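User: For my dataset I need records formatted as: sequence, then structure tokens, nothing else. Please produce one.
Assistant:
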Amino acid sequence: MFAMRYRKIGAKIVYFRMLQGLTQEQLAEKVGISPSYLSKIEHGAYPKNLSLTTLLLIAEALTIDICELIKE
């Protein structure tokens, strides 16, 4: 159940990132995380230490409300 949710959140991050014409590297730099870590998030392979703060930073970097990422 949670794995599907994580994949959906990751897909939304990819969608909004591409809408803004950002590469993974550019978004990762804005957020302050590594591109490989962002890639894991985008593919739904959430590391155990993923925090709500990281998702909030991603949403802010994409200039969207975090609700856009976590709503069903």
